[in-house]
Write a structure and sequence with these properties.
alpha/beta; six-stranded mixed sheet; Conserved hypothetical protein from pyrococcus furiosus pfu- 392566-001, ParB domain; 15% strand; two-stranded parallel sheet; ParB_N; ParB/Sulfiredoxin_sf; 4 domains; elongated; ParB-like N-terminal domain-containing protein
Length: 307
Amino acid sequence: MAEEQSKGIQQIEGCEVIYDMGSGLVIAKVPLDKVKEQDINARIMKNEMQDQLTANIKKRGQLESLPLFVLVDGKLEIISGHHRVKSARAAEMKEIIAIVDVSGLSRSKIAAKQLAHNAISGFDDDSTLREIVKMIDDVDDMIESFVGKEIMEEPLEQYDKMLSPAVQFDFKNVTFTFLPHQVKDMDALVKDLESKAPDIVGVASYEQCKGFVETLSKYQKFTDIRNVGAAIHSMIENAAQKMDDCGFTEEGEWTYLAKLFGSNAVPGESASVIQQAIKKAEKEGTITSKNRWQLIEYLCADYLSGR
């Protein structure tokens, strides 16, 4: 009977028996599109664990433990390995190696084996598990193991070092928060922000957040700076250069020319005259490139004095 069933599996398109284990079990190469999941499966896996299993399979290109299938009426059904099959499909695998029961199991036997494989999973000795965890010295390996932090204790310190390398130098934190105009308990909010120990706390209108993010993104593409911190630093350096070019100092009060003239622009002919005057004043040493604005002050002072 088992031999006939073994031949039956090879009649499924794409299936190939690799080894006959005896007792109605064979190891076979099986196309995933020929495998059917059970309608009911009691075993549950967290999404993040399922995602990690998918990542592990994609990285290796194969399953590291073989699922158990059963041949029923010329079709393959899963007894054990629903999540492995799901992750293999998510990893875009087309076929996998599996153990297939070809002994002709009844529906009752299939259900019993499904429950048995789910239930007989054993348990870990915590002290031994911690000793094994200490052998892991790579953060990717730690993530792949999916060992919970509660298991680690002593290895936890090393785990944190791998995720966030310890630094032996001074560093600064900046907290910049975009908030709605109407914010209740502002004092409580500021205290909460300050409790995170930032060196600078900045608050801006919530509506400005979108423009800030879009401009920052454009600037990163324009300058080919991918690191957000480096991009902001570059923007600040450009602003500092502009202030330095106009001779800005923190002594005294400064204001924008647009605030004085009510406009950022002047007619082209007027601009040409102004540029000529600036060049002449710089050539004669009356002003420099860093205090061109002072020419306006001199002219206005002469005008007020009646010269």
